[in-house]
Amino acid sequence: MADDFAVSVGAFVAKAKERGRVAFVMIGLEGLSRVQELTPVDTGWLRANWQIQRDGEEMPAIREALPADGEKATKMLERLAQEKAQGAGPAGQQTLAVQDAQLGETLRIVNPVIYARPVEYGREIERQDGNTTSVSGAGMVAQTVAEIPAIAEAVVTAITTGQRT
Fold it and tell me: What domain count does the chain have?
């Protein structure tokens, strides 16, 4: 009888650890999705380049901007949107990159596009008359960080009730 109890407790603990790990990964992916959603869209380039990283991974190379050739840029954005819709490309790769992440690791949401910081925090623009104008930042990362507790709660609820987020 004691052996059965130990096996039952062991199974319960293993299931709880796996659920915790799954919640951890899902919270990271939901955070990635939310920061993408909050990112202002001009060309789509900034939004398309959000990535999630695990401990020990190198930062991605800084990317300048979308190709200047309008036709090439449009084709690139259409391809990225199609890959995302099919679960392939960068979005699908993000899931693959973190699906086996373990509790205790750190997940980071990063964007290598060179103008990501000014869009987040704001910037000063010099006008033709020599004066400057302040442009407010979008604060998409700050807002996502503030929403992490609600995201975590939604993920945990979805896992415990068997729903999908």
Answer: 1
* CA-based radius of gyration for the chain: 20
6 within a domain of the structure (yes/no): no
10 occurs within a structural domain: no
Give the 3-state DSSP-derived string for the chain, with helices as H, strands as E and coil as C: CHHHHHHHHHHHHHHHHHHHHHHHHHHHHHHHHHHHHHCCCCCCHHHHCCEEECCCCCCCCCECCCCCCHHHHHHHHHHHHHHHHCCCHHHHHHHHHHCCCCCCCCCEEECCECCHHHHHHEEEEECCCCCEEEEECCCHHHHHHHHHHHHHHHHHHHHHHCCCC
Residue 92 lies in a domain: yes
pLDDT at 57: 78
pTM for the full predicted model: 0.74
The type of residue at 47 is: R
pLDDT at 148: 96
